[in-house]
């Protein structure tokens, strides 16, 4: 029944390349998260504080990001913009797509975080003579940050997992690189099995370090 | 050089049917995997709750793998693994198997959360009325816990529906794969992507809104 | 001195304050009593501009609180406020809670701010809780923390908005004692309160609010033992 002979040697030989590609995966995920957090925060504030076109811009972004597949979003930045004459390199496509997606999801997390901080905290800060900016940066944002810390961690994991779609658009991050080697050697299973392990380790490392960091950050 | 200005230049009615058929395939593979996956996930969730650390160590850590490795890698691995053990599965069947396990892995966490959302005192009360363990589970835990985690479950359902697009990596022609094929042929990326995106959005957005409303109503 | 003239406040159709005239002199302790919904808390919110007003004026040491060109943040430094829900900042230790505003609003150095914080926390009897986070403090301790936080800004007036209403009964005493201490030190205070004992023993004057109107104001003996207004009589009969 089991007639397949595993060949791990070629995989081991290209392991350094795979690990290198793993770093690229991390880079893409981290970059997308940084952009996603920045834009997500803006979108959340636009959705909560503004009326008119800017609010609807934010709402549309959030809802499209959350209600269509990531692969669709990547196709848009790929074929879609390509047809309009904007040919982006795969690296930019994947970062743009993931940032777009992360921003949408994080915006809703931020919104929930802001709503969870009671308005009375604002009154208390204003009564001490703090201005709006001081109230936000010193009192509100730190509390929101704690509330969204775990959702951000989860989103980071998602960003790593989603970056594997690089393979579908010809980007050679961990999955794309794996496919490249696999198709050259026909050792598809072996290559992807090793890659699965690498992903698992990356995800566990992220969750572990996030837990360590949270113990240091949040002592209350 | 000739500019193509006509909107429907390469896109014809049969293409629309091709897309509609692919959309049905997306629906079909999603419904099948989500249904079976939810039942399995419910059982796993119950095991995680009742089995304490033993279950967490066995079932829990296996399911955790499916949440920590990109879906696309799981699909490729399983598709290439099945023939090794003598199974000849087509892309559709492989897709269903992996999407089902993936759903179950996500639902198991939701289900355990649901069981734990039912106050212990309530369960003691039902048992003191003479209900058996299973009656308590069926008539008390399922409705109350189910209601508590219904929005989270909807989140999983919509996630899997969107992730079903990844089965295209095995060559299964679901909606996004069909769009990709049509785009290559007709060079009408905007129209086709808009149609595909609109399909996902039209399916996902109302359901996510309903879940959000449901959550608000129960939060009060 | 706080001067309130013909103050009107509406929440939509609701007329919450209907022409309040009130002066509070430096060093005076004024207690404001009345049933809930009588507008007494709103009065405090109008004094430090947390609520806009529709008519009339509030002046603090001659400065119009609601005038367009008034720097409210500057003005609020004169006014300490303590809320019913103590509103301690959960992400900061007791010491940091108190030190934050002196540092970022008044521009004090870190050492100076921490010194002030330590002094004020000892002042309200929390000298042993400097490094604790609010979550580790009881309601009464958090309320005293809120008082220390307000005092650290060296306010000239203190506004107390039902400072003991949300506390467990056994914690009320410690907060009232702290307020009493402040009164003895000569702080100017406006206390919206349900604690009749405190109002009677500590205040120089007591004001009774009824449905947005200041029905009666006078020394505690007058309000509690020979009230003129029928509403005041009825209210006092009910709370006793």
TrEMBL record, chain A:
It is found in: Cell inner membrane; Cell membrane. Gene3D superfamilies: MetI-like. Residues 22-207 form the ABC transmembrane type-1 domain. The chain crosses the membrane at residues 20-46, 67-85, 147-171, 191-213. It holds the Pfam family BPD_transp_1. It is a multi-pass membrane protein. Its main location: membrane. SUPFAM superfamilies: MetI-like. One of its GO terms (cellular component) is ATP-binding cassette (ABC) transporter complex. InterPro entries: AA_ABC_transptr_permease_3TM, ArtM/GltK/GlnP/TcyL/YhdX-like, MetI-like, MetI-like_sf. It comes from the Bacteria. Keywords: Amino-acid transport, Cell membrane, Membrane, Transmembrane, Transmembrane helix, Transport. The keyword Lipoprotein does not apply. GO terms for molecular function: L-cystine transmembrane transporter activity. Belongs to the binding-protein-dependent transport system permease family. HisMQ subfamily. NCBIfam families: HEQRo_perm_3TM. This is ABC transporter permease.
TrEMBL record, chain B:
Its main location: membrane. CDD domains: TM_PBP2. InterPro entries: AA_ABC_transptr_permease_3TM, ArtM/GltK/GlnP/TcyL/YhdX-like, MetI-like, MetI-like_sf. It is found in: Cell inner membrane; Cell membrane. Residues 23-211 form the ABC transmembrane type-1 domain. It is a multi-pass membrane protein. GO terms for molecular function: L-cystine transmembrane transporter activity. It holds the Pfam family BPD_transp_1. SUPFAM superfamilies: MetI-like. Keywords: Amino-acid transport, Cell membrane, Membrane, Transmembrane, Transmembrane helix, Transport. The chain crosses the membrane at residues 27-48, 55-80, 92-119, 140-161, 190-207. GO terms for cellular component: ATP-binding cassette (ABC) transporter complex. The keyword Mitochondrion does not apply. Belongs to the binding-protein-dependent transport system permease family. HisMQ subfamily. This is Amino acid ABC transporter.
TrEMBL record, chain C:
Keywords: Amino-acid transport, ATP-binding, Cell membrane, Membrane, Nucleotide-binding, Transport. PANTHER family: AMINO ACID IMPORT ATP-BINDING PROTEIN, GLUTAMATE_ASPARTATE IMPORT ATP-BINDING PROTEIN GLTL. The keyword Iron does not apply. CDD domains: ABC_HisP_GlnQ (cd03262). Signal peptide: none annotated. PROSITE patterns: ABC_TRANSPORTER_1, ABC_TRANSPORTER_2. Gene3D superfamilies: P-loop containing nucleotide triphosphate hydrolases. SUPFAM superfamilies: P-loop containing nucleoside triphosphate hydrolases. This is Glutamine ABC transporter ATP-binding protein. Residues 2-236 form the ABC transporter domain. The keyword Lipid metabolism does not apply. GO terms for molecular function: ABC-type amino acid transporter activity; ATP binding; ATP hydrolysis activity. It is found in: Cell inner membrane. It comes from the Bacteria. Belongs to the ABC transporter superfamily. It is a peripheral membrane protein. InterPro entries: AAA+_ATPase, ABC_ATPase_HisP-typ, ABC_transporter-like_ATP-bd, ABC_transporter-like_CS, MetN_ABC_transporter-like, P-loop_NTPase. Pfam families: ABC_tran. One of its GO terms (cellular component) is plasma membrane.
């Amino acid at each position: 029944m089991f007639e397949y002979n595993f060949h791990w040697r070629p995989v081991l030989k290209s392991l350094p390349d795979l690990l290198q590609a793993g770093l690229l995966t991390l880079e893409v995920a981290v970059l997308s998260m940084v952009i996603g957090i920045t834009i997500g925060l803006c979108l959340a504030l636009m959705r909560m504080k503004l009326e008119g076109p800017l609010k609807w811009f934010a709402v549309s972004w959030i809802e499209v990001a959350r209600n269509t597949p990531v692969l669709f979003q990547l196709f848009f930045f790929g074929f879609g913009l390509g047809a309009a004459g904007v040919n982006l390199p795969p690296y930019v496509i994947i970062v743009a797509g993931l940032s777009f997606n992360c921003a949408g999801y994080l915006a809703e997390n931020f919104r929930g975080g802001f709503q969870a901080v009671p308005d009375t905290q604002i009154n208390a800060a204003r009564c001490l003579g703090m201005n709006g900016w001081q109230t936000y940066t010193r009192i509100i944002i730190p509390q929101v940050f704690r509330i969204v810390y775990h959702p951000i961690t989860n989103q980071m994991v998602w960003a790593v997992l989603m970056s594997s779609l690089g393979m579908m658009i010809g980007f050679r991050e961990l999955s794309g690189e794996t496919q490249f080697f696999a198709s050259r050697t026909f050792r598809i299973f072996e290559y992807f099995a090793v890659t699965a392990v690498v992903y698992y380790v990356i995800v566990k490392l992220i969750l572990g370090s996030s837990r360590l960091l949270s113990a240091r950050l949040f002592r209350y | 050089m000739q500019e193509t200005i006509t909107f429907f230049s390469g896109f014809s009615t049969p293409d629309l049917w091709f897309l509609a058929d692919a959309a049905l395939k997306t629906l079909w593979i999603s419904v099948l995997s989500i249904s079976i996956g939810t039942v399995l996930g419910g059982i796993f969730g119950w095991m995680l709750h009742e089995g304490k650390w033993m279950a967490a160590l066995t079932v829990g850590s296996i399911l955790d793998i499916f949440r920590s490795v990109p879906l696309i890698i799981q699909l490729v691995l399983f598709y290439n693994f099945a023939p090794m053990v003598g199974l000849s599965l087509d892309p559709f069947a492989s897709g269903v198997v992996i999407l089902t396990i993936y759903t179950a892995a996500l639902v198991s966490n939701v289900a355990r959360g649901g069981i734990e959302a039912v106050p212990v005192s309530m369960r003691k009360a039902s048992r003191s009325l003479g209900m058996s363990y299973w009656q308590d589970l069926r008539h008390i835990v399922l409705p109350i816990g189910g209601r508590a985690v219904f929005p989270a479950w909807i989140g999983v359902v919509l996630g899997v529906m969107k992730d079903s697009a990844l089965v295209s990596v095995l060559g299964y022609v679901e909606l996004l794969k069909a769009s990709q094929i049509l785009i290559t042929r007709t060079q009408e990326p905007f129209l086709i992507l808009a149609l595909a995106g609109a399909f996902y959005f039209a399916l996902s957005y109302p359901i996510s809104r309903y879940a959000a409303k449901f959550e608000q109503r129960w939060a009060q | 001195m706080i001067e309130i003239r013909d103050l009107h406040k509406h929440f939509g159709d609701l007329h919450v304050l209907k022409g309040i005239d009130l002066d509070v002199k430096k060093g005076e302790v004024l207690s404001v009593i009345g049933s809930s919904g009588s507008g007494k808390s709103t009065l405090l919110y109008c004094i430090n501009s947390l609520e806009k007003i529709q008519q009339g004026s509030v002046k603090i040491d001659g400065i119009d609180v609601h005038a367009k060109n008034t720097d409210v943040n500057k003005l609020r430094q004169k006014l300490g406020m303590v809320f019913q829900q103590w509103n301690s900042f959960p992400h900061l230790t007791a010491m940091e809670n108190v030190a934050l505003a002196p540092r970022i609003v008044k521009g004090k150095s870190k050492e100076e701010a921490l010194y002030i914080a330590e002094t004020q926390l000892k002042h309200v009897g929390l000298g042993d809780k400097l490094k604790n986070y609010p979550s580790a403090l009881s309601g009464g301790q958090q309320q005293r923390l809120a008082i220390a936080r307000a005092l650290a800004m060296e306010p000239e007036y203190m506004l107390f908005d039902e400072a003991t209403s949300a506390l467990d009964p056994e914690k009320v005493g410690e907060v009232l004692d702290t307020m009493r201490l402040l009164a003895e030190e000569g702080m100017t205070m406006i206390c919206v309160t349900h604690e009749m004992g405190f109002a009677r023993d500590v205040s120089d004057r007591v004001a009774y609010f009824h449905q947005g109107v200041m029905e009666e104001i006078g020394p505690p003996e007058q309000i509690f033992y020979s009230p003129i207004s029928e509403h005041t009589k009825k209210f006092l009969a009910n709370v006793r």
